[in-house]
Structure formats: structure tokens, C-alpha cells
Write a structure and sequence with these properties.
CoA-Trfase_III_dom3_sf, 3-stranded antiparallel β-sheet, elongated, 14 helices, CoA-Trfase_III_dom_1_sf, 15% strand, transferase activity, 6-stranded parallel β-sheet, transferase, 36% helix, alpha/beta
Length: 355
């Protein structure tokens, strides 16, 4: 078992707030990067949400309190930049520029610094508020989610923030690997539109706008949706004819052997499947179908899912958290608690890494 993570020796400065930016740098810290979280006097705003909220996004980091609007704060930031590989910031574009957190402003301290700006609509896209729910609404995610006859629906977690955090971490590492500094620009709007890949392609190339189906049914595959069982809901995802042969034999359904036939007779197929699945519970169907290789799962609550997968839960100080989703052979992250405000204010600056 190795003791150092794959990003050991990489120093990243974070000027992050709430979720997207801090999530990006936490993933990098879990992989061994040294992450210095710059906090304003009084601390980063997410500390006011709850201790567990802050802990879930800021473990394995150091905290340095700086007033970036002061000359002393900017000088200290320049010292840290000179000895770092990257800086990631998620703020409004005007604030990023006003505080001098772009590559053009910081290259004087370190030509090879990678500066990642994580914004709502791009570094040149203006300052309109860009919270997660707003982006989900603006990019079509809410409109394509929910029952056909119901209102638009938002996912039950911060999908835009988390997805953009992952993308920002990828962009940051890509530019570091290139061995040259520069500006990386990642925004919530573009990330969410990118994640609509085949939906967007269907519209751009075929003029097919997304439509909602009951129970979240897939637009191409049949049956692929949620079904009500004798007790609870079941997610069933039949993507090819082999799956259908196995499933239909177990469920006692005949006919519709090809994907094209099932798609052409969607309502009839779904009615047969729904009637069959109503004869047993979701958990029993999962137990019957999973050993046959059928993609299936009973719908669980988050508490039930966490209880079923205790191996993903780690301890960082006083908090139990979901650990890193990235598993690397020979490396086990050490989960340290989220830092107190300015806990590492005296962090050392060594000779510039770019020399």
C-alpha cells in the first residue's frame, strides 16, 4: 500500500464558495494534492449552512484567511501562487477580475500557474446569478424531467454544481499535464448542455425535441423505466434483445422479440410488463432478476442506499462522509477533517515550482 496519492506534490489554491469549486478541489485533495483554501475574514459562506455541509466539501484541505481586497492579502496570494501549480475560483466574473484571480493577473508571479474560472455562463458571459436550480431550468433539464402531465421537476441533488466541479477538476489537471500555464474557463451552463449529449444531438440533427414519458421512461429503449410492484417501485432497464429474452422468460411474457417491435408497441409492452411486475415486490424482483444479469434495482431512499453500502462511508474528524469515488490500486486516502478558519495561516512558501 503506497502512502502518497497520485497528486502528491501538486499544490492547488482554492478561492471557492459553497459547492462547485470546493467539490472540485476536495476530489483533488482526496487524491493527494495539497489544497489551500483561501477564506475571507469570517470564513467561507458555506460554514454558515451547517458543520456537516462544510465538512462534506472541504475535507483534506488547509485554510488560510486572506482579505483579497487588501494590499497585504494580494501580496500573500502572490507568494502562494509563485509556489503553486493551479488556482481554482468560483465567483462571478466581475469579482474574479476585480480580485485579480485570472491568469493575466497572476502570471507575473508564476508563468506556469493554471487558473481555472468556474462560473455560471463563462468568464466573458456576464454576472447573471447562476445557482444550480437556475441552470437546470435554463438548460432544459427541468423541462424534460417529471410526469408528462405534471410540472417541470428538479433533480433531488445539485446536479449542475457537482457536474461542473468534476469538469473543472478535469480541466485543471489537463492543463497541468500540458506543462504550461494558462486560463481554463468552465461554466455551469455549458457543462449541463454537454451532458445532454444524445438528447441535444437528436434535436440538432433530427429535429427531435425531448419529451417526457410516465415513470421516467427512456425515449429509445422499451421497457426502461420505473414500475410499480406489489410493494415499492422497481427500475428496469432493458437495452437489447438478449436482456428481453431473459427477462420475459422469468416474467412469463411472450412476444416482441426485437427492440424495434417493442418500441413500435410501447404501450402494449409496458402494460404487459407492469402487470407481471405487480405480482411481486420490488426487492423480490431485484433478487430474482439480478442473478440473471438483468439491469434492475429496487428504488431505495438515500438512508437505505447508505445502509446497503457501508464501505463508501468514511470518517473525517467528527463527521461521517461519503468517501472518494476514485479508487486507485495501492492508494488509500487519509481523510482529514475540514479545516478551521485560518488553521494553516502560517503555511510555508518554498521556492517557486516553475523555476
Amino acid at each position: 500500500m503506497t502512502t502518497e496519492g497520485p497528486l502528491a506534490g501538486i499544490r492547488i489554491i482554492e478561492v471557492g464558495v459553497m459547492l462547485a469549486g470546493p467539490y472540485a478541489t476536495m476530489l483533488l485533495a482526496d487524491l493527494g494534492a495539497e489544497v489551500i483554501k483561501i477564506e475571507p475574514p469570517g470564513g467561507e459562506i458555506s460554514r454558515q449552512v451547517s458543520d456537516s455541509y462544510f465538512a462534506s466539501l472541504n475535507r483534506n484541505k488547509q485554510s488560510v484567511m486572506l482579505d483579497l481586497q487588501s494590499d497585504a492579502g494580494r501580496r500573500r496570494l502572490g507568494e502562494l501562487v509563485a509556489d503553486s501549480h493551479a488556482l481554482l475560483v468560483n465567483m462571478k466574473p466581475s469579482a474574479i477580475r476585480r480580485l485579480g484571480l485570472t491568469y493575466e493577473s497572476l502570471r507575473a508571479h508564476n508563468e506556469r500557474i493554471v487558473c481555472v474560472a468556474l462560473t455560471g455562463f463563462g468568464l466573458d458571459g456576464g454576472d447573471d446569478p447562476a445557482f444550480d436550480y437556475v441552470i437546470q431550468a435554463a438548460t432544459g433539464v427541468a423541462a424534460m424531467t417529471g410526469h408528462p402531465d405534471g410540472p417541470p421537476t428538479l433533480p433531488g441533488y445539485s446536479s449542475a454544481d457537482n457536474s461542473t466541479g468534476l469538469t473543472a477538476a478535469l480541466g485543471l489537471l489537463a492543463q497541468i499535464v500540458s506543462n504550461r500555464g494558462g486560463q481554463v474557463d468552465v461554466c455551469l451552463r455549458d457543462v449541463m448542455l454537454s451532458q445532454l449529449n444524445y438528447r441535444a444531438s437528436a434535436y440538432l440533427n433530427d429535429g427531435a425535441a425531448p419529451q417526457r414519458y410516465p415513470f421516467g421512461a427512456h425515449s429509445y429503449y422499451v421497457p426502461a423505466q420505473l414500475f410499480l410492484t406489489a410493494d415499492g417501485y422497481l427500475a428496469l432497464f432493458i437495452t437489447h434483445d438478449g436482456f428481453w429474452r431473459t427477462f420475459s422468460a422469468e416474467a412469463g411474457i411472450e412476444g416482441f422479440p426485437t427492440m424495434a417491435e417493442r418500441a413500435a408497441n410501447r404501450d402494449e409492452v409496458l402494460a404487459l410488463v407492469a402487470a407481471a411486475l405487480a405480482g411481486d415486490t420490488a426487492l423480490n424482483w431485484e433478487a430474482r432478476l439480478s442473478p440473471l444479469g438483468i439491469p434492475v434495482a429496487a428504488v431505495r431512499t438515500l438512508p437505505e442506499a447508505l445502509e446497503a453500502t457501508p464501505e463508501v462511508v468514511v470518517t473525517a474528524g467528527e463527521h461521517r462522509l461519503v468517501g472518494s469515488p476514485i479508487r486507485i490500486d495501492g492508494y488509500q486516502p487519509e481523510y482529514r477533517p475540514a479545516p478551521g478558519i485560518d488553521e494553516h495561516g502560517a503555511v510555508e512558501v518554498h521556492s517557486p515550482q516553475s523555476s
